[in-house]
Design a protein that fits this description.
single chain, 148 residues, alpha+beta, four-stranded antiparallel sheet, 3 helices, 27% strand
Length: 148
């Protein structure tokens, strides 16, 4: 006895179970967990943030990548700023849901430090802290208050 290959009904691929209307309305239903970022990806995100800081990238383009307080800091009036170039990035993961990055940035032949913190949200990674640390002018003395 031979099988009739051409007359057999092909198998259907396994389909995922259908979502209920209630699950469909929930924002976190079946949202994939964002994977861990690699150092190169963190560098690209920092470059995008620097471009917004310099005024070379429209701030609304990075709205989904940054927390509201970071967005407010980048949305102010843009003065003529030199182009900042990201040179070296160091990344660490203090806890599984957090990535901290520091980088060396160059502008006009000078080097500056950059510090950033990213947290994992259901919709993806978000920058919650972004600081470009520039030295003060020599004629200004900065004093830090003593820690209690």
């Amino acid at each position: 006895m031979r099988t009739l290959v051409h007359n057999e009904v092909p198998r259907r691929a396994e389909q995922p179970p259908a979502m209920t209307p209630h699950e469909h309305r929930r924002s976190d239903a079946r949202w994939p967990v964002p994977r861990q970022l690699e150092a190169g990806e963190v560098g690209r995100l920092l470059t995008m943030l620097l471009e917004a800081y310099d005024g070379r990238r429209p701030v609304p383009q990075i709205r989904g990548l940054v927390a509201p307080e970071v967005l407010a800091g980048l949305s102010g009036p843009h003065l003529a700023r030199p182009r900042h170039r990201l040179r070296r990035v160091h990344v660490c993961t203090p806890v599984p849901e957090v990535i901290e990055a520091c980088a060396r940035v160059e502008a006009d032949g000078r080097s500056f430090a950059l510090a950033a913190r990213f947290t994992r949200r259901p919709e993806g990674w978000q920058c919650v802290r972004f600081a470009l640390l520039k030295p003060g002018r020599p004629d200004q003395q900065t004093r830090r208050p003593a820690a209690a």
